[in-house]
Amino acid sequence: MDSYELKYDGLYFWSQAGVTAEAISSKYTSPEEANIAMNLYISGKKFVADRMTGEEDLEELNSKASLVGYAEALGVEIPAKLKQPSAIKKYLKGLQDA
Known about the structure:
With 98 residues, this protein is α+β, with helices and mostly antiparallel strands.
């Protein structure tokens, strides 16, 4: 659930440091209702990779979406622990050099 915390001030609401996502910025009458809203928010954030052929120049790819699309085109699975584009690119370069 990202870094959100469910709080209560007469009604339940999601809170985090910084701005709360608009999709879950409402207040809820029960924790169950708040959790349903959070689950819908999380499911709506599905990551979509850019379509790549695998023939692109890895050095020129810098976004997470393009790097993941490149890996998918090559049939390479990116370890879940790699979140940042720089880490993903380093991993893919390591595979190329191997």
